[in-house]
């Protein structure tokens, strides 16, 4: 241990202060981080230090009222931007453009000012996709779980791994590398999706596996929300249930608390959508979204995005929900 400390200290420039090293040790312990070599750890420490500085600068602006959300270091603290992008598995070129599946919701029906499907028991606990770009599958099963609950009153986590392994080929998903919610819905319509207990998640580090079995809950299809229409999205969330959405996640990496607005710089055009989440509620001011980066990320695994603010982060650009008979 003494030899390790001496070598690591020699590799570490003197500009690193003790507080950085203390935070680094705490970070490694909390997230179970280990590295193949001292040089690799030195590189990761450099990334970590750079992220700390960025977060500190952002939070100073937050404390001065210049930002609307706060950041904190999390499991991505030693990730390069390229490594973080590899986790973002939304298949942009497959995002649909409406057509026959466009949802036709009753414009005359009033909706509540606030909705929270968590409080109604329609949302399963937050999960963690680890290094796997499985956001599309987590988003899809999140919406299906809500519909199953609303139909028969039972709530049980469905299998992301089932979709990663089996919804390939003609369904155009690529496991931990990329996929799309509507492709997952098409697979579930044809073959069903098993529960997480029957087919647990194991692709923590982007491992690929053969399709082991099929079956389970089937849906009848899916509906799309008119692109960019936040009012239609609110109506779907209120009247139908949790909705799968794509979004620009460029501001989410170290999100802690608060409401993300368009002033953050996130984009709403289709070409910028790179991550998938589930809208589980709203207020007059913001959307409530369930993420798949673990319960220690964000607000216990959730985030809030400004509502009716020019489609912030593209939350209404590619919104879909499953249908059950």
Explain how this protein is built.
The relative contact order is 0.16. The protein has helices at residues 2-11, 18-31, 38-63, 81-86, 135-152, 160-166, 181-191, 230-239; strands at 69-71, 115-116, 221-224, 243-247, 255-260, 275-282, 286-290, 302-306, 319-323. α5 (135-152) packs across α7 (181-191). The protein has 2 domains: 2-67, no CATH class; 81-323, Alpha-Beta Complex (Cathepsin B, Chain A). Strands 1, 2, 3, 4, 5, 6, 7, 8 and 9 form a 9-stranded mixed beta sheet that branches. By secondary structure, it is an alpha+beta fold.
Concise summary:
The chain has helices at residues 2-11, 18-31, 38-63, 81-86, 135-152, 160-166, 181-191, 230-239; strands spanning 69-71, 115-116, 221-224, 243-247, 255-260, 275-282, 286-290, 302-306, 319-323. By secondary structure, it is an alpha+beta fold. Strands 1, 2, 3, 4, 5, 6, 7, 8 and 9 form a nine-stranded mixed β-sheet that branches.
How would the blueprint of this fold be written?
Blueprint: H1 2-11, H2 18-31, H3 38-63, E1 69-71, H4 81-86, E2 115-116, H5 135-152, H6 160-166, H7 181-191, E3 221-224, H8 230-239, E4 243-247, E5 255-260, E6 275-282, E7 286-290, E8 302-306, E9 319-323
Parallel strand pairs: 5-8
Antiparallel strand pairs: 1-5, 2-6, 3-9, 4-6, 4-9, 6-7, 7-8
Helix pairs in contact: 5-7
Number of domains: 2
The CATH topology of the largest domain corresponds to Cathepsin B, Chain A
- Rounded to the nearest angstrom, the distance between the terminal CA atoms is 62 Å
The count of helical stretches stands at: 8
Helix content: 25-40%
- How would you describe the shape? globular
Work out the number of β strands: 9
Q: What's the average pLDDT?
A: 92
Q: Return the string of H and E elements.
A: HHHEHEHHHEHEEEEEE
CATH superfamily of the largest domain: Cysteine proteinases
Largest sheet descriptor: 9 strands, mixed
Stretches where pLDDT is under 50 for at least 5 consecutive residues are: 1-16
Cα radius of gyration in angstroms:
21 Å
Query: In terms of structural class, how would the helical and strand content be classed?
Result: alpha+beta
CATH architecture type of the largest domain: Alpha-Beta Complex
